[in-house]
Amino acid sequence: MKLRNPHSRFDLNIKRTDRVLEVGGGHNPHPRANVVVDKYVDDNTHRSGDIKVFKNQTFLNADGEHLPFADKEFDYVICNHVLEHVEDPVAFLNEQFRVAKRGYIETPSLLGEHLFPKKSHKWVLLEVNEKVVLVDKERISFPTHFDFGDLYLEYLPKASIGYKILERTHPNLHTMRLEWEGGFDFIVNPEDKDILRYFEEPWTREMVLRYFPQRSMGQELAEATRAFTDICKSIIRSRVLRKA
User: Fold this and answer.
1) Distance between CA atoms of 77 and 98, rounded to whole angstroms?
2) What CATH class is the domain 2-242?
3) How is the chain split into domains, by residue range?
4) Structure pTM?
5) pLDDT digits (tens, 9 = 90+) for 86-130
């Protein structure tokens, strides 16, 4: 079942004693992972750089749709910006649920994919009514001719504290983040028109409020304060990782 929507990939409920797997760690593995697997060792088509492995991690070349692990071998599995690339999302997700008791999944959201589309992404995703929905981009003739990735992925995250706060106060704006236990509900290429309208039609205010419920001023201030604290922690964390 879905547990919650974490604010970031570092806002995870992982115990000190948990054995953690990351599927598709690529050039930016999670430092908490004990074991990291990746399907492509020498091909950077699906990532932004060469594979990186920290000193405390074991690396295996493996396909996320056919993981070489026993059932529930891990306490927790992390999957960060991989699901949108896979050929068979049903097999891929079922393997996550098989090998781990709990986990975290993160992908670009529908809005994020519109702002910085990638040719290597086969699926566009959104959480609708507590279900993760995957739609084949070809099925909806997804536009890819505008790409604002340099602005939203490079410049603003590095240069704007205001943007960093926005990312944290509305974490599912550009990404879809979900922490789960035992698995979660998902739909691939739905036929339901009420779901498809999120992917194919202009969003009404009703749709916006369903996806981003209105918060009080007090809640907004609390979220902004928490976000600023998290930014300070992330700066410290990045400096530590650079030394690793």
Assistant:
1) 10
2) alpha beta
3) 2-242
4) 0.87
5) 999 999 999 999 999 999 999 999 999 999 998 889 999 999 988
